[in-house]
């Protein structure tokens, strides 16, 4: 007996669906595997690691590696763990993110609404700047900073991160603002706003989603940076990534894989955390204007 | 009466595209001026130029005896209402209304007083604490009008304010804008492509096409004595009927194919020359179903009942003709009818210049 079509169409599990799920699950496993290995290895002691059963769960939980990675592991000549690196990374990331995002928002706003002479040329320059590999600029920038007397210092590394972040962030903000209704800006001008007032009272309150996107991009980018930190920060301000490298690349003694693993996880916690709490915003922000333009 | 807004020989172009060229327009104090035209005719550009949102290529704008050509929008004593409402989404209605006043540092008491007055006038008292996203289209546009109101603008600019609303709300708000003008008697400049809005609201309408003012006159004049073919065709719905014809001076007739139309009663018949090629224009309501010595026989081809009246379609010498009749009239397809034209209310245009004769 055939049923008469009525109400919602019944859902069938098609072959395509099954294939799709299989693919998604495999992808997830592929990316979760290294994380799994890292976590279980960090919880094993060295004897068990030497047994070389990389995928086995630890027979006995050992938390020896975590505190050592955080506060005792040797990063070169000092043995204070990653803690100083974490503090340095925070000191570098927070001001760099704030300054670059604030300036880029202002730039994007000017480019989108106040079409000054040569705005398109400037826009093109930003586009260009966003795609130049920054290794090209490391040496000239080093010389400039040396000349300015801020090479190998906290302000020096903050300046570098701010400069390198701005082209792409300016593009993102500009595209977001270009998608806002222009009438809003006209209304604000008639209502008596000037350049700065319109930015603060009208534009910034509407910028939440795109600002979150920009902050995520910058936090993860700057936190994960290795090269610029190594070159520009100087010995006293080495970020966490540089210190992690020093822990892992031991020249003498035993390689403590469990300490290496926990140190790596500790270093990546901040970007991971940022993605977890902001995933929803990230997608929304990208949909809201980062892509279209 | 003194002029409130004077547009003096302005030109405006986007790059090489010329939108307005040497356009002048005087708007009297307290006048409701409607800029009417199809999209792309430059009416919104003209409004934006008056508001100071676009820089002129040439010419001057005067508002209240003040040359504001180089002044910022905020210094022009204007308030503007946009089609998209343009309410600040992050602010409550109250903050939206007070934004302009806060920008110039008005005292709190005064702001509250003005908001109260505007809210009463527009009946938006209950909405003051809400965000724009919690309002309907009609409510949003009320708030947008209120925003212009609290600033004590001398000139109100409306940029197609009702185009995003449904038909019923549009009629409602149209009525309220008219009432507002009656009560405030500010100068208002209103851009629209909707001829009903133009006819109902305007003291004078300026019909525009291709950046030029085609006719500037009262709604009555524009409807009854359109200056050229474009205005005649643009104003009126259903639109005016047009017949290509030739003038026969000896009989004082227009010849349409094999038919003749007696135009002895036409006001400017003396300006017509023998054999002149013309376009005869007549509105659907100025055609009568009656038999006389000048009437024309034809057949009903389509009937559109519209409630209040009925539109009957027929054709004369291959040209479709619509006739507006009472709603109660009864016609069927292929009925034979005899029609005659009310020549007093017709318009005759020269075929070449398209100007009214």
What report would you give on this structure?
The complex is a heterodimer of chains A (293) and B (357). Chain A is mostly helical and 293 residues long. Chain A has 2 domains: 48 residues, no CATH class; 208 residues, MetI-like (MetI-like fold, Orthogonal Bundle). Helices cover 71% and strands 0% of the residues of chain A. Chain A has 13 helices and no strands. The longest helix of chain A has 34 residues. Chain A is flat and about 75 Å long. Chain A starts with 14 loop residues before the first helix and ends with a helix. By secondary structure, chain B is of the alpha+beta class. Chain B folds into 2 domains: 224 residues, 3-Layer(aba) Sandwich (Rossmann fold); 110 residues, Nucleic acid-binding proteins (OB fold (Dihydrolipoamide Acetyltransferase, E2P), Beta Barrel), CATH 2.40.50. Helix content of chain B is 24%, strand content 34%. Chain B contains 8 helices and 21 strands. Chain B has a 6-stranded mixed β-sheet, with helices on both faces. Chain B has a 5-stranded antiparallel β-sheet with strand order 13-12-11-14-21. Chain B has a 4-stranded antiparallel β-sheet with strand order 2-1-4-5, with helices on one face. In chain B, helix 2 packs parallel to helix 4 and helix 3 packs across helix 4. Chain B starts with a strand and ends in a 7-residue tail after the last strand. At the A-B interface, helix 8 and helix 9 of A face strand 6 and helix 2 of B.
